[in-house]
Amino acid sequence: MTLPRLPLLLSTLLLFTACNTKKITPPPVENNQTNPLMAVIQTDKNITNEPIETTEPVEEMQGLEGDFAGNYKLMEFIDYMVTYHQFTHKELYTLFSKAKDINQMVEPCKVRNNNGSCVVQIRKGKWDRYRAMFIYERNIERGINFWTEHEDTLNRAYQTYGVPPEYIVGIIGVETAYGVNFGKKKVIDVLTSKAMLGDRRENFYTTQLEKFLIMTRQAGLIASELMGSNAGAMGYGQFIASSYLDFAVDFNNDGVTDLWNAQDAIGSVANYFAQNGWNGNIGQVAVRAKYKGNRFRRLKTGYKTKYSQKKLRKKHKIVPRSKLYYKGPVSLIKLPKASYDELWFGTHNFRVITTYNHSTFYGMAVHDLGKTIKARRGY
């Protein structure tokens, strides 16, 4: 005998119930391989790893609209956030329906030739070009003003974490020009686009999107409004979401950890360095070296290198130009300029700076900017 079919409404209710109670496999996690980001991924401390049976009312469910309508990856991600982190379908569908695909946004060109092509100004020397992006008169003046305005907070961070003010000031100046450039894209747009539309590091960005939602909920921030960089980094120090969860601190003790607040940002950058091995007993970060010739090609260079100072001196005749008190192995840093290569010795603390952004040039820009501002202040 053929059984009668269930009414359509009952079938729909059963389908939604199954969707709301299924166990979702967590998305894959990829450790950060770039800067800052840089962080050990941790789960939300308030949430267990066990899936939670949801009883979300059927009437709260709605379709995914906008640029990501029909994106199955995003719908599975939403189910995961509901099941494992107690968000609701309604709030996440509303949030992601307003998110924009950043791949459809066209970057403006500031200067064009007569034929309409974009003008790109080139300076000779790789280091010259890189340095000029961060160390210029207006940014130095901003740094002096920032240090003066927040001197008490910088000194307190130094006392608390052992990180000298010039390196906190250097980081913030390189990252955001002291708050002038927090980023021009919404973080939710960047992370959703990179996580859900086939970016080569989509696993990393999926994890950052998860941490971003947890971060904004914990801090009471509005996820749809926060602005950041092209990589989804945020605030004065350009922390990615996982770095916020791991290293950000409420340094002004107002009950909110806000990376757009200069005091919290100062404490958070200092805490990041301390947690990544900054040694307050090492007074020097980088010291200029001298060698024979104008171009250096004899040895491998970069922040990852480690050489015995004795071997560099005895075998290769490479010595510091000024007194180097640090006794440990040094990184050999090459800065290609227009007509010659500068060579520097980097200490342990230089390598700590490069954990913020895995780049020799980045580490030297932070060092150079911080030292320049400190000298201009008369220290």
Task: Please characterize this protein's 3D structure.
With 379 residues, the protein is of the alpha+beta class. Among the domains are: 24-98, no CATH class; 286-346, no CATH class. It has helices at 8-21, 72-85, 89-97, 126-132, 137-149, 151-161, 165-176, 187-196, 202-219, 241-247, 262-275, 309-314, 348-353, 360-376; strands spanning 185-186, 227-228, 286-290, 302-307, 319-320, 330-336, 341-346. The longest helix is centred in the middle third of the chain and has 18 residues, at 202-219.
Which tags fit this structure?
alpha+beta; 379 residues; disordered N terminus; two-stranded antiparallel ribbon
Average residue-wise pLDDT = 85
Query: Strand-residue fraction?
Result: 5-15%
Specify the biggest β-sheet. 5 strands, antiparallel
User: What overall form do the CA principal axes indicate?
Assistant: elongated
| Lateral strand order in the biggest sheet | 4-6-7-3-5
The count of β-strands is 7
Quaternary arrangement of the chains shown? Answer: single chain
Order of helices and strands: HHHHHHHEHHEHHEEHEEEHH
Unreliable stretches covering 5 or more consecutive residues: 1-26, 29-48, 57-61
Q: What Rg, in angstroms, do the CA atoms define?
A: 25 Å
Structural class: alpha+beta
Distance between the terminal alpha carbons, to the nearest Å?
A: 94 Å
Give the helix level as a range of percent.
40-55%
Helix segment count?
14
How do the strands and helices of this protein lay out in sequence?
Layout: H1 8-21, H2 72-85, H3 89-97, H4 126-132, H5 137-149, H6 151-161, H7 165-176, E1 185-186, H8 187-196, H9 202-219, E2 227-228, H10 241-247, H11 262-275, E3 286-290, E4 302-307, H12 309-314, E5 319-320, E6 330-336, E7 341-346, H13 348-353, H14 360-376
Antiparallel strand pairs: 1-2, 3-5, 3-7, 4-6, 6-7
Helix pairs in contact: 5-7, 5-14, 6-11, 7-14, 8-9, 9-10, 10-11
